[in-house]
Design a protein that fits this description.
The protein is α+β, with helices and mostly antiparallel strands. It has 4 helices and 10 strands. The chain has one domain. The strands form 2 sheets. Strands 1-2-7-8-9-6 form a 6-stranded antiparallel β-sheet, with no helix packed on it. Strands 3-4-5-10 form a 4-stranded antiparallel β-sheet, with helices on one face. The N terminus is likely disordered.
């Protein structure tokens, strides 16, 4: 499910993605495992999503793991929730503690303009998508061909183990 977060007519258009769990507002930092072409992000999910992605035991601290396939770029760092307004896409509707896609992404266009090291990179450049997940203390951005929710687990350690197993 994709819903428009802001009706701005700028080139970069931020939309909310509804099929991945929202990050927990006051939770621990997300965790990244990456290889040359795969990025897996694990993060604690918002309590509002417990029913949709559960059931969970009362002692669980649910985390999800999201795979970004054929990743060409990823980063985790500032801005966080307190200074999200400084992000270049804040005016296009970047929301706190949400999973977004940037349609007509200028970052994807910029990456497509880089010299390709092989023919597969050229073919992928037209199908790349720009994803942003906002957290309390940081923002995750990734340009990849797609994303897949691998699963939702009862604890961060389990999600991290799954991420390590799948990134190989």
């Amino acid at each position: 499910m994709v819903s428009t977060c802001n009706a701005s007519q700028q080139e970069d258009q931020v939309v909310l993605l509804g099929d991945a769990p929202h990050p927990a507002a006051d939770a621990a930092e997300p965790f990244i495992v990456a290889s040359d072409r795969r990025v897996i992000l694990t993060y604690p999910i918002a309590e509002a999503d417990f029913e949709r992605f559960g059931p969970f035991d009362p002692d669980d601290d649910p985390y999800c793991a999201v795979l970004f396939a054929d990743a060409a770029f990823h980063r985790l760092g500032p801005p966080g929730e307190a200074d999200l307004a400084v992000h270049p896409l804040a005016a296009q509707g970047l929301c706190r503690d949400c999973v977004h896609e940037v349609v007509n992404s200028s970052l994807c266009a910029e990456l497509a303009g880089l010299p390709a090291s092989d023919a597969s990179m050229t073919a992928m450049s037209s199908s790349r998508r720009h994803f942003i997940i906002t957290f309390q203390a940081s923002t995750f951005e990734c340009v990849a061909s797609d994303y897949t929710l691998i699963g939702v687990f009862g604890a961060g350690e389990i999600a991290s183990r799954e991420a390590f197993a799948l990134v190989r």
